[in-house]
Specification:
This protein is about 40% helix and about 10% strand. It is α/β, with parallel strands linked by helices. The protein is globular, with a radius of gyration of 27 Å. Bound molecules: glutamine and zinc ion (ZN).
């Protein structure tokens, strides 16, 4: 019999039960026992889903109350000193304080850093390693969950972040090689595995996605050593690699002294044959055959064609799984009853993906005839998708084919544009601006809810949004900002807002995906050629411009961000989808310019995040990402100023591409790094204008004038001051008005103070 299993499931529940339970607990409205009750119920439901789908083993340990990397750190006793943990069991509130800085009990301390899990939009908490870090088994949650699963009649497969991946993701606080800590770390992993074995756990899955990265030789060698030590500790070990091809790590992976290997056959289908050839004849091969990162129904016939020879070769040693944990897709399609009925049958969420695995396993075991109907249904959906006129739009195709190189170039080089823009905009030196959004107040959100529920008319909704815009403009005028924004009151989200107005996007009602902790996003689904049936932002922006003599920035989300924060179609390269989005944005920018808008910002906060994990793929990605941005923004006149904004970005390895975007102004997040991020721009002699963020918008604290003056002086040591702008790190939508006004007043004062010694621009 061919086993099916999953590396993990989404945690939140279809109604985001976990979110509400967590937030209730943090606010003191629910007890820890109530929170644990919700968590237990969710786990029970998720195990039942797996066992109903035909999984012999259910995943235990993939669930987390906040983050699985944090759970692993807690188990290993890696708690930074500032949390005052004195050994013994790391309790729930200590975990929450590490994650959020505070919890119902314990002294607040600054939270651990959070960053993206490989190239996904899931954020994990970065483990911090002190010099001479010690490790000790310090949290029993996994063992308790194993008992819980057993009590419900399941066979648990324990899921853990593997030791090499955990260590790779950790940050050494000091000058030492963290790999040196491996020997101290492994005995605790050994203890955990021994405990699991004593509980009767047959399999433990150790996630080692770093096997899909370019690894230094020392790390590659460490794999052999580590797993040699762990193999005898207890259960059979399955090392799980995903998010890409193994490539130069392939021999390391197949030779590991463990009982099983999981590979990602969705992102690396061509490697599968090689893996099977080299895998020793005793090992289980888990093939990640349905896409754990995307929402499309699998091509079951293609999968069977690939799996049949493997089944013949491996027999029962072949297991089937999603390519990676299903954490990255929504849980269940069934509740999406209001969804676009044509698109819905093309999709498979986590529950449906388990069903697909079951169909494949049955076909391999009992022959295709055993699942004729299921295969036919799947094929029909696939064919409907391929043939749908909603997927292919000949007008878009023709436009794409007709793109000329000059469409991606501004009419004149930057120095000429700069002169034209100065003459037109008449800005002072060190011009002040903001990144786009102003506080999304409870009143704004209530208006949106009322409008969507039909409780207020469109006219009433728009009137309320115009009032918000008017207020934002008044505040900015009063504070003396130089380039204004309309404040984005009418936008629920910077991706969904545009997706809803573009052809080729579909939406779900419950398609939540965890971003971090209790926070979820509901990514749109790009299913077809993207086109812009009508202007999207022009009416709002021109209204805002009509209220002021100062320049009003048009505000758009860029092609890479619209693509990366959606579920992207898998039937054409990302590049093609990005170019289609770029054309739609190009039209929008054209319309904004024609309506008299002089400054237009195209946000690309996901630009860095979409960078391929392996160095080999990066040039290609950067080339099309730059091309898409330029295609969107190059159709304007010299005197129209194009801004872009990026945040959470490390720029060192992409600075050349950033320069190639040829935006007239880029605003970036730098306040927390103390302007160090600017070094990349200075070293590269970045040619255009830069607005390094002078204060961190993530905190409600009002920044002091003096602190911002200092930061600007630091910036001016790196970037010529004629090319510096003054702005916060990012948009202000999560802030409240009073602190926003106070912070911006200080920011304007800081800019003015620095303007004095120099003559005004001109
Ligand atoms: N214009 C957006 C805003 O201000 C940019 C958000 C972002 O960079 N993530 O909210
Ligand atoms: Zn930002």
């Amino acid at each position: 019999m061919t086993h099916i299993h999953t590396l993990g499931l989404p945690r939140m529940g279809v109604q985001r039960e976990l979110k509400w339970a967590l937030e209730g607990y943090w606010k003191g409205e629910r007890t820890a026992a109530e929170l644990h009750g919700v968590a237990r119920a969710l786990r029970a439901r998720h195990w039942a889903l797996q066992s109903e789908a035909g999984c012999r083993y259910v995943a235990v340990g993939d669930f987390s109350l906040y983050d699985h990397v944090l759970d692993m750190s807690a188990r290993l006793g890696v708690v930074p000193a500032r949390f005052g943990w004195g050994g013994g069991e790391v309790d729930l509130d200590t975990c929450f304080r590490m994650a959020r800085g505070r919890a119902p009990s314990g002294t607040p301390a600054f939270a651990c850093e959070m960053t993206k899990w490989f190239d996904t939009n899931y954020h994990y908490l970065v483990p911090e390693l002190a010099p001479g870090q010690r490790f000790a088994l310090s949290r029993q949650d996994l063992f308790e969950q194993v008992e819980e699963a057993k009590a419900l009649g399941h066979r648990p497969k324990a899921v853990l972040v593997g030791p090499l991946t955990w260590l790779w993701l950790a940050k050494a606080q000091g000058d030492f090689d963290k790999l040196d800590l491996l020997d101290a770390l492994l005995p605790v992993y050994g203890q955990i595995l021994a405990r699991l074995a004593a509980q009767g756990v047959e399999w433990a899955q150790l996630d080692e996605p770093i096997l899909a990265l370019d690894l230094p030789q020392a790390w590659r060698s460490a794999f052999q050593r580590a797993y040699h030590l762990l193999q005898s500790a207890g259960p059979k070990l399955m090392v799980a690699a995903y998010f890409g091809a193994l490539e130069d790590n392939l021999m390391t992976a197949v030779k590991l002294p463990v009982a099983g290997l999981h590979v990602d056959a969705v992102s690396a289908p061509d490697e599968l044959g090689q893996v099977a050839d080299w895998l020793p004849a005793t090992k289980v091969l888990s093939v990640g055959v349905v896409d754990g990162r995307n929402v499309w129904r699998a091509d079951l016939d293609a999968a069977l064609a690939r799996l049949t020879p493997l089944r013949a070769k491996l027999g029962e040693r072949l297991w089937l799984a999603p390519s990676c944990s299903l954490l990255h897709v929504p849980l269940d399609l069934a509740p999406e009853t209001d969804m676009d009925p044509e698109v819905r049958p093309w999709l498979a969420f986590a529950v449906q993906k388990l069903d697909e695995l079951a169909i494949l396993a049955r076909a391999l075991d009992a022959g295709r005839d055993a699942v004729t109907e299921a295969l036919a249904e799947s094929l029909a959906a696939l064919e409907a998708r391929r043939a749908s006129p909603r997927v292919t739009n000949p007008v878009v195709r023709a436009r794409l084919a007709a793109i000329r190189p000059e469409d991606g170039r501004r009419a004149s080089p930057y120095p000429e544009r700069e002169a034209a823009q100065r003459a037109r905009l008449q800005l002072p030196s060190l011009p002040t601006t903001t990144i786009g959004s102003f506080p999304q107040t409870a009143a704004i959100r209530a208006s949106r809810r009322d409008y969507r529920a039909g409780r207020i008319s469109q006219a009433e909704y728009e009137a309320r949004m115009r009032a918000e815009i008017r207020h934002a403009v008044e505040v900015q005028e009063r504070l003396g900002l130089d380039v204004l924004v309309h404040g984005e009151a009418e936008r629920n989200d910077m991706v969904e807002y545009f997706g809803e107005q573009l052809a080729g996007f579909a939406f779900t009602a419950h398609g939540w995906v965890q971003s971090y902790g209790s926070r979820c996003v509901k990514p749109p689904i790009i299913y077809g050629d993207v086109a812009r049936p009508a202007p999207m932002t022009v009416a709002w922006i021109t209204y805002a411009q009509s209220l002021t003599q100062k320049p009003m920035k048009g505000m758009l989300t860029g092609p890479v961000t619209l693509l990366k924060w959606s579920f992207v179609r898998d039937d054409q390269p990302w590049r093609d989808t990005a170019m289609q989005i770029a054309l739609a944005l190009r039209d929008e920018i054209h319309d904004l310019e024609a309506a008299g808008i002089q400054v237009i910002q195209v946000d690309e906060p996901a630009f860095r995040e979409a960078l391929p994990l392996r160095a080999r793929g990066r040039d290609d990605y950067l080339a099309w990402a730059v091309q898409a941005f330029r295609l969107a923004t190059s159709g304007v006149k010299d005197e129209t100023q194009i801004h872009t904004h990026m945040c959470y970005s490390e720029f060192n390895d992409i600075i050349a591409a950033i320069a190639e975007l040829d935006a007239d102004v880029i605003t970036i997040e730098t306040a927390r790094s103390n302007m160090e991020l600017l070094d990349a721009f200075a070293d590269y002699e970045y040619p255009n204008e830069i607005g390094p963020g002078v204060y961190d918008i993530h905190s409600p604290n009002v920044p002091e004038i003096e602190a911002m003056v200092k930061l600007l002086q630091k910036a001016a040591e790196r970037i010529p001051r004629e090319r510096l702008w003054v702005n916060p790190d990012c948009g202000l939508k999560t802030r409240a008005w009073p602190e926003t006004e106070a912070a911006l007043a200080n920011m304007v004062a800081a800019a003015r103070r620095l303007r004095q010694p120099l003559p005004e621009r001109f």
